[in-house]
Write a structure and sequence with these properties.
The chain is of the alpha/beta class. It contains 13 helices and 8 strands. It has helices at 9-18, 20-26, 70-84, 103-107, 137-144, 153-171, 173-181, 200-215, 246-253, 273-284, 304-323, 328-342, 347-367; strands spanning 29-36, 44-51, 57-62, 93-99, 218-226, 235-238, 258-260, 289-297. It has an 8-stranded mixed β-sheet with strand order 1-2-4-3-5-8-6-7, sandwiched between helices. Helix 5 (137-144) runs antiparallel to helix 6 (153-171). The radius of gyration is 20 Å and the shape is globular. 46% of the residues are buried. The protein binds zinc ion (ZN). The site of zinc ion has 4 residues, from loops.
């Protein structure tokens, strides 16, 4: 059994629940809550409140917004609980630890939830799931959404590269990137589908985030992700709605890689969780402090070739889900590559991920004078 990285959703949940006794030793006012999924009652979103005596700062750690990314997410949660929480002052610092925002995706090793919705495109602030956003989507529909069964990995690979080159030559890399990743609200079997209604995980998170800002003066939120960015360096991803620059944030946290979620530094997202949180603060809690970010652990790398390989892994996995494969051997190969994109097996990668996570936790908590 790996000490940090769980082997299944159930393993992760059991470990999360059992680690809470550590929190209870320090925070006397704790409350464990659970939300079983309506249609999958064996799967649940679980969270722990550990309240400060004086509600000054709340630290929120959340995992598995993108289901499969919750395995690395749990490892970082464990590090936070075991190595950093004991150094916080329960007098003025509270915790909200959320395990498995998308438990179905975590259980079945998918990024999306049971309704094929990417939760990080579902936090649409005004509830208007506008089908007209991402007008360029139709330019990449054929590239990312093939309608055929996977008959051979090799042939499918050649066809994929043909579609990539065609899309890049006709639309350009910037447009292809934006169209593929921004999100959309009309095609459930095309990925980065943001849905047409709020999902269960989204509603749970929204209520928790509102309560957090309502009760605490200052909220720091860290949401765990994998898959994008350089392989050997975790990126702290922050909202363009935060007034700090990425360079200023990098200095403040003494952490080498900070990127804003925009086309220049990362890529554009519509309906992402951090943006929702800033909009909620600005509209309803303008006098409260908020820093909401993601830890994004890169896997394949950030070169153009690596990004296209990531796209291929996502396209093939989505194609396998909707159209199937000719045999189990092909299906296994597709699943294995997808797994590598979000939960790499390499020991060296995992050790560096934990080290980067430690460094970033340390930098953020120090910058806010919490440790
Ligand atoms: Zn993610």
């Amino acid at each position: 059994m790996d000490v940090y990285f769980p082997s299944s959703y159930e393993d992760s949940r059991t470990r999360f629940l059992s680690s809470l006794s550590l929190i209870q030793q320090k925070w006397h006012s704790t409350q464990l809550q659970t939300h079983p999924l309506k249609n999958f009652p064996d799967l649940s979103i679980d969270w722990l409140w550990a309240h400060a005596s004086k509600k000054e700062t709340l630290v929120i750690i959340s995992t598995a917004e993108h289901g499969i990314e919750g395995y690395v997410g749990y490892a970082l949660m464990k590090i936070f609980i075991e190595e950093f929480a004991p150094r916080l002052d329960p007098e003025n610092t509270g915790l909200l630890l959320i395990h498995g925002l998308n438990p179905w995706g975590m259980k079945y090793h998918r990024k999306v939830n049971e309704n094929s919705v990417d939760l990080n495109r579902n936090f649409v602030f005004d509830g208007n799931f506008d089908p007209a956003i991402n007008s360029e989507f139709h330019q990449v529909r054929d590239l990312i959404n093939p309608q055929t069964r996977i008959r051979s990995f090799g042939i499918e690979n050649i066809k994929f590269w043909g579609r990539v080159l065609k899309a890049i030559f006709t639309s350009g890399i910037a447009t292809v990137t934006k169209a593929a990743l921004l999100g959309q609200h009309h095609t459930p079997n095309g990925f980065y589908y943001g849905g047409t209604t709020y999902q269960e995980g989204t509603v749970v998170a929204m209520k928790l985030y509102r309560r957090a800002l309502d009760e605490y003066q200052s909220v720091i939120q860290i949401d765990m992700h994998t898959g994008y960015g350089p392989r050997d360096q975790m990126s702290i991803i922050m909202s363009p709605l935060d007034t700090m620059t990425s360079e200023g944030t990098s200095n403040k946290f003494n952490y080498p890689l900070v990127l804003k979620i925009n086309a220049e530094e990362f890529y554009e997202i519509s309906g992402d969780m951090a943006a929702y949180y800033y909009e909620l603060r600005d509209k309803s809690f303008p006098d409260k402090q908020l820093f909401a970010c993601g830890f994004e652990f890169g896997t394949f790398g950030s070169s153009l070739l690596a990004r296209i390989r990531s796209l291929r892994a996502m396209v093939f996995e989505n194609q396998l889900h909707w159209r199937g494969a000719k045999n189990e051997g092909i299906a296994h190969r597709v699943r294995r590559e997808f797994e590598e994109l979000y939960f790499p097996a390499e020991k060296k990668w995992r050790e560096k991920a934990l080290a980067d996570g430690r460094q970033a936790f340390d930098g953020i908590l120090r910058a806010y004078h919490l440790i």
